[in-house]
Amino acid sequence: xxxxxxxxxxxxxxxxxxxxxxxxxxxxxxTTNFVTFPPRxxxxxxxxxxxxxxxxxxxLLLSLVVGAGTALVAGTFGTLAAVAIAREQVIGAxxxxxxxxxxxxxxxxxxxxxxxxxxxxIALPAGVVPLVIGHTVLALPYVVRLVCAGLAxxxxxxxxxxxxxxATPFQRLRRVTLPLIAPSVIAGALFAFITSFDDLTVALxxxxxxxxxxxxxxxxxxxxxxxxxxxxxxxxxxxxxxVLVVVVERVIGVGRLFGKAAAE
Length: 264
Fold this sequence. Notes:
Order of helices and strands: HHHHHHHHHHHH
CATH topology of the largest domain: MetI-like fold
CATH class of the largest domain: Mainly Alpha
Largest sheet: none
Mean pLDDT: 81
Shape: globular
Number of domains: 2
Structural class: mainly alpha
Oligomer: single chain
Helix content: over 70%
């Protein structure tokens, strides 16, 4: 009886999570000029219409570039920070971990306002750089925790053995530690990309009329229009995000890594 109730509960949770996505995807196939569900007829015309709006294509390319930059920067600095924290090579490792994890508990609006004020003070114009900086702040907690989880599964004796054989700290990191935690580093970088690609709140504060990521472009478009073009663009974002998550899970096993991170 309890097993049946558990299965029903899990099924209801999945339905609750998947239903909004399914509505958006199906609404993108409607033949009407307005968003409706269930769709009236089926067509892919609204996907073809994306290419008739170069601003959406440009914003998509910008989001991909910013996401790649965020994955590179957050992956690099997050990995180095995680190694220093996990191996207690810095004073107050627990405090540093809490500080790097703080974006998870600080509202995104507060982070966006803080970044806007800081960029204004240093006179940094809107562009790829401030977007990468802002999204790196958001993504660092995921990278640090995933890499820390990967380091928790490595026997420190391997690194000590390398040190005993004369390897320098950099050689130990490059030849021993990084190869062993490569799956965690890749997973962290991909999650940083997804965090950047889907972000709206922080990006709203650091974009301009000429530099606008895809989520911000969708948000601004919806202020004045509500046609199925929005649902087709949103479906493209959903598909890209799901594909990345599935690839990471299949190749690396994100569930296992997050389980280790949560256990720490």
